[in-house]
Amino acid sequence: MPSNFLELRNISKRFGGVHALSGINFDVVAGEVHCLAGENGSGKSTLIKVISGVQRHEPGGTVLIDGKDCSHLSPAQCIANGIQVIYQDLSLFPNLTVAENIAIERHRGLRPVRWAEIRSIAKEAMDRVSISIDLDKQVAELPIAQRQLVAICRAMANDARLVIMDEPTASLTRREVDALLKLTLELKRRNVAVVFVSHRLDEVLEIAERVTVLRNGEKLGTFNAQGMTDQRLGELMTGKSFDHQPIKETLTVGLPVFEVRGLSRAGEYADISLSVGKGEIVGLTGRLGSGRTELALSMFGMTRPESGEMRLNGQPLTLNSNRDAIENGIAYVSEDRLSLGLVMEQPIASNIVLPILEDFSDALGLVQEDRLRDTVRRWISHLGIKVSNAHSPAHTLSGGNQQRVVLAKWLATKPCLLILDSPTVGVDIAAKDGIYAIVRQLAAQGLAVIMISDEIPEVYCHTHRVLVMREGRITSEYRPLHTTEAELRAAVDA
């Protein structure tokens, strides 16, 4: 019978008066895929930091590696013992190349830099994940999905006995997820253990042998993944039942709020025509590289199309910058909230009012603090943002609450069109449900919404129409009430 590589006994961790972990018992068998599930704030990240030596647990707990007490190892000693962590924030060096980021752990110390060796290490790691990225490109130039893959390759480049993947698939398409899951099973065959953390419950159940569920810092239990459903797992994680179905209310759409006709930009998208009406939620889906985000950037004035036209409320629209888009009532929630959606070190309040800060200035240019505070309080209340102090940095919030702050920031501009690019990436099932409810409420109030996502259930259950993009073109349109999720998925995968 396989032995435990890692065992945690009676692990607790406090932050001030808050119990982040309470009496956790957890074990990982050599060569198993063990998934760790729970809502944001359930204690998953804290448990990972204890395992990797980043956080010290409270006295009375024990961490065993191969049966030996390793309760006080540093992060470097944990790595030396074969524990590798792919953190949710990736921890990459944006000014270094892809090759340098992947090989950095293997090629360090006081010795000459051997560029051929660095490239060889990086190429071997990428081959194991079956991907291809320009080794000489700076990581700062890569889209978020490719940065995620670089982080995974960096972990693969080291001789790990346990790989902890904290939301590794949050920004990956289904094809890339399949490649990662295939790699995970290959690691298992090599007797490498994997702790897999994901809010995408279907992935959890696809590859796991066991699932440990945390709720409010306590272990709810460890369950056999065989026979478990994502609905049941969601109930265990949250204590609530979720059963999403396509939007059933009929919508009579009048004149379009926003439309594009024959929009093209070489190498990104071609001959795009679409429209969205008042109160309508239009889904836009397709694989990574289909042109979805590139199109969104042009609709928000970040890039300029080379041909075609845009119209807003029936009038021609020319956008020379994102400032033009904001002034015309267009808001864009980026897929990358960590670097584009929020200023993570700045206060929550500052993030909410950032696009409209000049609106709070008086005739002398002084900020009217009372009006600013009232606006912040109103949006925190309206969107149900769980925050004890609006002056706390944005990075102190959970993923779901960070996304609500991004929504508040753009809704404060009073838009007529809201473009959501992967709005639920990296948030848990309950937070997703809350975001879906907010979007539906906004649409019911007359806001036109374009929701971009590669999660088929997301666009199938939460939009009125779905447009499928492939190789920069819109190839088909579906109405969820008149089609099946399988048919939509087949159109995307075709």
- Largest sheet, strands/sense/barrel: 6 strands, mixed
Domains, number:
2
Strand order of the largest sheet: 6-7-8-3-9-10
Helix content: 25-40%
**Can you give the mean pLDDT?**
87
CATH topology of the largest domain: Rossmann fold
Notes on the protein architecture:
The chain has helices at 44-51, 75-80, 98-103, 115-129, 144-156, 174-189, 201-207, 230-238, 292-299, 322-327, 337-341, 348-353, 369-382, 399-411, 429-444, 456-462, 485-493, and strands spanning 4-15, 18-29, 33-37, 62-65, 68-69, 83-86, 162-166, 193-197, 210-215, 218-224, 256-265, 269-277, 281-285, 307-312, 315-317, 330-333, 417-421, 448-452, 465-470, 473-478. The mean pLDDT is 87. The longest helix has 16 residues, at 174-189. Strand 11 (256-265) and strand 12 (269-277) form a beta hairpin. The strands form four sheets. A six-stranded mixed beta sheet has the order 6-7-8-3-9-10, with helices on both faces. It has a six-stranded mixed beta sheet with strand order 16-17-18-13-19-20, sandwiched between helices. Helix content is 33%, strand content 24%. It folds into two domains: 4-238, 3-Layer(aba) Sandwich (Rossmann fold), CATH 3.40.50.300; 256-493, 3-Layer(aba) Sandwich (Rossmann fold), CATH 3.40.50.300. By secondary structure, it is of the alpha/beta class.
